[in-house]
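I had to read the description of the data format several times before I understood it. The format is easy to grasp once an entry is in front of the reader. For illustration, here is how one protein appears when written out as sequence plus structure tokens:
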Amino acid sequence: MTKEMQVVGITIDPATQSPIVILRDVENKNILPIWIGILEANAIAVGLEKVKLPRPMTHDLFKSVIDQLGVKLLRIEVTDIKDNTYYALLHLEAGGKTLAIDSRPSDAIAIALRLGAPIMVHDAVIEKAVRVDAASGSGPEKDKWTELLEKMDPEDFSKYKM
């Protein structure tokens, strides 16, 4: 099974100074942090803010190619996590065929934001990953990431500044 999730913002891991994209399910029950690179964080931030740049960046170029070819991005799926590495697929429809293309989640999210496609996450990823139960946020499973995310104001999830 999969859950639809939305990007609520980007924050910085205080311990490693690495960017983290924060996903939250549409039922507001789970928050899923995914550690990403700084360039990927910038690409997601540009997509979130719907910034129009004078020249296309990689994800904008991908959107243009998809649009020009008449291909549709049906959804992206975060499918697995192994050794703290996340895996994703782009599900495309082209010429009556459905294709699943391997992708890094950060790239898939940046593309989904530009194309308005749903972001889906497999239940197993939510269960295996460092996650926060947005509904309760307490109990013996509570860890430093839960505490960090609980303490953050929604404004902290907004713009990612370089």
